[in-house]
Every structure is written in structure tokens, then in C-alpha cells.
Amino acid sequence: MGRVYLDERAVKFAAKKAREKVRRCVRGLDRDSVCEVVNELTVSFAGRPQWVARGLARYMLQTVKPLNLRVKAWLVEGVPMLGDRHASYLVWLDGDKYKCTCFTHAYGYVRQARICTHIAAVMFYRRQRLLGEEE
């Protein structure tokens, strides 16, 4: 897969909209299926709304592509403006734990301990698909 660069304005716009959406969800101003995921992730990863917003921005940019739903694997397109150095990342479920190929790159131990935003994007993607609201 060749490296695909998303338009800088699109990335900035998605990041801004994601931050706004997370704020609205956390404050209870919005109550939709995206907010359900935002609130679940905010509770699970307390004190990390920026992480949730980055995962939501990746989801909004449609960077998640299913590879094999039988083995539960997804390809997440890298976004250089969000700090990615690789064209894509593989996310998969290993039992009940998500894993990502970014764990094997520089500072991967930190991403693994905190869970990367590639995984957050997959969580948004899966939840929206489950609810039948994928665009």
C-alpha cells in the first residue's frame, strides 16, 4: 500500500471537530452513538480527552479499513499530521485485547501501555458499524 497523504486542511478540520465533539459529549450537550463511545473511552481512560479526540479524528477521516472481520483485523491509514511515521498500521483483537503494529515501533512500549489512537479509531469504527450508523 502506497503512502497516502490526507489534505492538511481536512486533518486540521477533523481534529478541531473531534475536540469539539468530545467536549460536547463529556458535558452532556450531545447524546448520540458517537457520544456513547466517547463517554465509554473517557471513563476507561480517565483524564485523556485528547487521546479520545485523536481517535475520533482518525475515525472521522475514515482511516479505518476492515481487513478480515473473521479474525478481527483492521488497517488504519497513517496520518503524518497526527504523528504517524508509517503509511499504515495493523490493529487486531488478540482474545479480548487490542494490539497494534505501532507497539513495535519507536516508543511502542508507551503506546502499548496507554493504548494508541489507532486502536481508538478502530473502537469508534466497530461501535458505529455495530449500531448500523457507519456512513
Topology diagram in text:
Layout: H1 8-26, H2 33-44, H3 49-60, E1 64-68, E2 73-77, E3 88-94, E4 97-100, H4 108-114, H5 117-130
Antiparallel strand pairs: 1-2, 2-3, 3-4
Account of the 3D structure:
The structure is a single chain. With 135 residues, the protein is of the alpha+beta class. It has one domain (8-130). The protein contains 5 helices and 4 strands. The chain has helices at 8-26, 33-44, 49-60, 108-114, 117-130, and strands spanning 64-68, 73-77, 88-94, 97-100. The mean pLDDT is 84.
Brief sketch in words of this structure:
The chain is an alpha+beta fold and 135 residues long. The chain has helices at residues 8-26, 33-44, 49-60, 108-114, 117-130; strands spanning 64-68, 73-77, 88-94, 97-100.
